[in-house]
Amino acid sequence: ADPARQQAFDSAIEAGRKIEPQDWMPEAYRRTLVRQISQHAHSEVVGMLPEGNWITRAPSLRRKAILLAKVQDEGGHGLYLYSAAETLGVSRDELVEALLSGKAKYSSIFNYPALGWADMGCIGWLVDGAAIMNQIPLCRCSYGPYARAMIRICKEESFHQRQGYELMLALCRGTAAQKAMAQEALDRWWWPVVMMFGPSDAESVHSAQTMKWGIKRISNDDLRQKFIDATVPQAELLGLEIPDPHLKWNAERGHYDHGPIDWSEFWRVVDGDGPCNRERLETRRRAHANGAWVREAALAHARKRARRARQ
Ligand code: ACO
After folding, report:
1. Which residues of the chain have pLDDT under 70?
2. Distance, CA 64 to ligand 1 centroid (Å)?
3. Binding site membership of 210 for ligand 1 (Cβ less than 6 Å)
């Protein structure tokens, strides 16, 4: 590497200046960003599936409009993020191909099924709540296009979290059967959501380097702790019980202690053997194939316009 360029990069990181696509960057920094941003984009797109299934079954017009808007937002987030990844010199086609072939990772959480309407509440409240916790620090990430995409995404995620919590509140203030639905969904989603933040700091292979580069600002375990601390009082307000018998306020630490996480389940899901991994990829592949005519039509239109502009 050219020492002068490396030094310019290092001092930009040190001074908290953004790295932009036209700037020189170490190859490993570029590769790490492509990995993380594309995994993030795939998560947004696959994340449309568990909720997409419920749009036709929403219990009222209001709930349907909210859910529809939210699922469309997730698709938009995927598109901003693919664009951010493209500024690093990869093509969207190769990223999508890596997802469809099963090579690329996406968030473990979207491999769990949404079995009932209360799951729409839990996904918004907890999954989007965890996503915001992880994404707010990414607004300060050292790579400009990723940081800027995150600002808009976080605003929309905040709406997603609120609509989920409001849905949970409606169920918990409803009939005993509705409240039981809310509790049952929380029982299923809690641990997978706690795992979303990724392996413990001791096991996180990328953290040390990505923190040095100012991509990751807060560690996996610290974000997980912040999420649990914020969520426990929200569950109390709902009158729901978090399914962790070890969950307890620790006055000395000023945080909640929690029970052990089943990392074997986490890695099983990450490695492709969760409850819905195959179904999610199958649905994505089908959607991609069904959309082929739209891509062809858009390309034909672009070619026609380019031809006209030349004439
Ligand atoms: N699901 C699937 N894979 C995961 C998860 C998870 N919840 N958490 C970690 N991993 C993977 C990592 O991608 C990495 O795999 P790789 O080396 O093949 O790329 C491996 O486990 C080791 O983990 P870490 O070293 O901790 O990886 P990293 O530093 O990238 O941290 C994290 C993981 C926190 C998810 C980070 O990549 C990140 O902040 N990404 C951006 C946010 C994001 O993708 N959110 C998606 C869910 S939110 C939503 O879409 C609504």
Report:
1. 1
2. 30
3. yes
- What gap in Å lies between CA 162 and CA 169, rounded to an integer? 10
User: Which ligand 1 atom minimizes the distance to the CA of 206?
Assistant: 25
Q: What is the dihedral of CA 16, 137, 202, 42, to 10 degrees?
A: -110
Q: pTM of this prediction?
A: 0.96
Question: Buried b / exposed e across 85-119, counting CB within 10 Å, b at 16+?
Answer: bbbbebeeeebbebbbeeebbbbbbbbbebebbbb
Distance CA 177, CA 134 (A): 33
Dist. CA 253–CA 17, nearest whole Å: 34
Q: Which of 39, 80, 99, 133 best tests ligand 1's pocket when mutated (most atoms within 8 Å of CB)? A: 39
196 lines ligand 1 (CB under 6 A): yes
pLDDT, tens only, 142-151 = 999 999 999 9
Contacts of 152 (CB under 8 A, 6+ apart): 80
State the Cα–Cα distance between residues 284 and 46, nearest whole angstrom: 7
ipTM: 0.98
C-alpha span between 212 and 199 (Å, rounded): 18
Tell me the CA distances in angstroms from 272 to 24, 156, 195, 259, 286, one per residue in order. 36, 29, 15, 25, 18
